[in-house]
Specification:
The chain is 42% helix and 14% strand. It is built from 8 helices and 5 strands, in the order αββαβααββαααα.
């Protein structure tokens, strides 16, 4: 289970605001990447808090409500849209979102972030001192909290897009390349939230030969 060892190690070095960062939605064919940044108070505890991928949708929703309504939890969440993903590539777009989430949190609460814990590898040219933690969402409690907020926020957004674009079934698969989604893509072609740089969307978006 995730713990506070990374956060506490940073605080022992005099770093007060230690921010966990994680994303959701790097792999889908449609929709944004969602990124969250979270600063937890010392000795924070929330039973069941874990990597969002290891939890049911119901449990994620419960934890999301507990995290986002707890006045001691500082958090921010941002999205990087499909057009930006296509323009930058998914890795650079994700890194841009991570920086934006941390900056948003800093501005929202008028604090100075001292250190970031990022799920995955270190990020070049990141605007804050940080460390990358591979599989950090299962090791760091603040990264796990960020993973919950990022995932639930994105799923709710994709459910809203499902009402605008009902033919794709976004409420069922959140934009991932399921059999149902691929079939809908072949029938209807891509919509404005599809990532045109991703296969198989790229092929379907090409003009047909005359």
């Amino acid at each position: 289970m995730p713990h506070l060892e990374y956060e506490n190690a940073a605080r022992l070095q005099g770093l007060t605001a230690v921010c966990g960062i994680d994303e959701a939605g790097r792999g889908p064919l449609a929709g944004p990447v969602s990124v969250a940044a979270v600063v937890l108070p010392p000795d924070f505890s929330l039973p069941g808090l874990n990597d969002s991928k290891k939890l049911s949708a119901k449990k994620r929703d419960e934890l999301y409500e507990q995290l986002t309504t707890d006045a001691t939890v500082l958090w921010a969440q941002v999205e990087v849209d499909a057009a930006t993903i296509d323009a930058l590539n998914i890795l650079r777009a994700t890194h841009q979102g991570m920086a934006a989430a941390a900056l948003s949190l800093q501005e929202k609460y008028q604090i100075t972030i001292d250190h970031c814990l990022i799920d995955g590898l270190p990020v070049k040219h990141f605007p804050f001192p940080h460390q990358g933690i591979v599989k950090g969402d299962s090791k760091s409690l603040s990264i796990a909290a960020a993973s919950i907020i990022a995932k639930v926020s994105r799923d709710r957004l994709m459910a809203a897009y499902a009402k605008e674009f009902p033919q794709y079934g976004f409420e069922r698969h959140s934009g991932y390349g399921t059999k149902h989604h691929l079939h809908a893509l072949h029938l209807h072609g891509p919509c404005r939230i599809h990532r045109r740089s991703f296969q198989p969307v790229a092929q379907l978006a090409l003009p047909l030969d005359s």
